[in-house]
Write a structure and sequence with these properties.
141 residues; alpha+beta; OB fold (Dihydrolipoamide Acetyltransferase, E2P); 5-stranded antiparallel sheet; 4 helices; rod-shaped
C-alpha cells in the first residue's frame, strides 16, 4: 500500500471517529444509553483529544520532513546572477553548476568575474537550494 493509501486510511478513520463521537454525544444528550452505554460515552470523550493529537503529530512530521535540510559548503565562483528570479548560478571546484536562491542584497554585491567565494547553502527534500552564507576565503580578504 502506498503512502496515499495509508493517508486515506488515517483520514477515514479520523472521520469515522468524529462521526461516532458526535452520534454518541447526541444520544447522551437525550439520555439514550441503551444504544451506546454510559461507559462507552465516557471513553469516547477522549476522541477529540486523540484526533487533535494525531493530527498535530502528523503535521509536525510533515513539516520536519519537508524542511529537513542538509547544509553544504563549497569553494566556488559565481557564474551569473538573475535578479528577476532571485537566483545565482555557481560553479564549484568540480565544475558542476548549481542554482541557488539568494536575497536581492547579496545579488547586488556578488561579482561574476571569477572571484572565489566560500559558499554555504541548504538543500531541502524538495530540491530547492537556498544560499545560507557567502564569504571570501581567508587569503583574499
Amino acid at each position: 500500500m502506498g503512502k496515499y493509501g495509508k493517508r486515506a486510511i488515517v483520514v477515514l478513520a479520523g472521520i469515522w471517529l468524529w462521526i461516532f463521537y458526535i452520534f454518541q454525544e447526541e444520544l447522551s444528550r437525550h439520555g439514550l444509553y441503551t444504544i451506546i452505554s454510559y461507559n462507552i460515552h465516557e471513553i469516547a470523550s477522549v476522541i477529540p483529544f486523540l484526533c487533535i493529537g494525531i493530527a498535530a503529530v502528523i503535521l509536525i512530521g510533515l513539516y520536519i520532513k519537508e524542511n529537513s535540510k542538509g547544509t553544504t559548503t563549497v569553494i566556488a565562483s559565481v557564474e551569473s546572477v538573475d535578479d528577476q528570479n532571485g537566483e545565482i548560478i555557481i560553479i564549484d571546484a568540480a565544475g558542476q553548476k548549481i542554482t541557488l536562491q539568494s536575497p536581492e542584497l547579496v545579488n547586488r554585491i556578488i561579482e561574476t568575474d571569477g572571484q572565489k567565494y566560500i559558499i554555504q547553502y541548504d538543500d531541502n527534500s524538495s530540491g530547492i537550494r537556498k544560499l545560507r552564507m557567502i564569504s571570501l576565503p581567508e587569503n583574499q580578504k
